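Morning!

This is the sequence you dropped in the shared folder:
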Amino acid sequence: MTSNRSAVLFALALLAPALVYILVIVAYPLFDTIVLSFTNAALKPTYDWVGWANYQRIFTAGNFTEVILRTFVWTFFSVSFKMVIGMAGAVMLNAAIPGQTVFRILTMPPWIVPMAIGIFMWGWMYNGQFGMISGLLQNFGITNGPVAWLAYGDTAFWATIITDVWIGVPMVTIYFLAAMQSIPKDLYEAAWTDGAGRFYRWRRITLPMMVPAIITMSLLSLIATFNSFDIIWILTQGGPSGSTTTMIIDTFKTAIGSRKYGEGAARAVVICIFVSIFCIVYFRAVRKLSQGEAK
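The structure's back. Tokens below.
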């Protein structure tokens, strides 16, 4: 019993730093945000308990439903493009082609370059008067004049998606490439011996073996994109006319811009609920996948 007690105490000692980190950095701020969401906290030094008033105000406001829908649409297209382009890039980088190392190195700059600098670069490219994109379209005769991509709701919305995809694709590509290279080569050799074509091998071997990696990367990319702030804020600050305002931008504007800390905290809690739902769906999918492989 003394030996078992020592083992337990030793295990708790090893877990103590992680436990302290979770309590101080994660649990306490989350608990404080939840408590704050039930108050009318603002710039004034004192605040009162208002119950569910902040949440009622959020969901009775006409624009918040639009913000939620816009966030899901923005996240869906951005994550979808990242997955498709990342998979295509991983397939090409995994192929035995000359200069393979060079292509792998060229994949990294969007991920290596500091995010703010990359976003500012895209902002200049979207500029109607001086931007490269507008200039090329005019030179090729596609447009009759300059196009200010960030000045109109539809074009600004897709411009932020393109920028987010540019930043996120390298990580997806490298992750998928690592997953492909971990697949046993014997499977491909056996399929090739049986006369299976390249597309058949990819569909029957590569894709099924990469399902866990695809699910994991989809969740990580979904959470990062859902909470993406820098890209939209630097390019449009949620404009024009709120056409690129997502939930995280709306939360920032409410809590920091309007100094409504209680209502902003309520919006943050709603975001946390959505992200938690994503995680629950992910863990259930992984569990079903593991059970299927065990059978």
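Headline: The chain has a mean pLDDT of 87.

More detail when I'm at my desk.
O.
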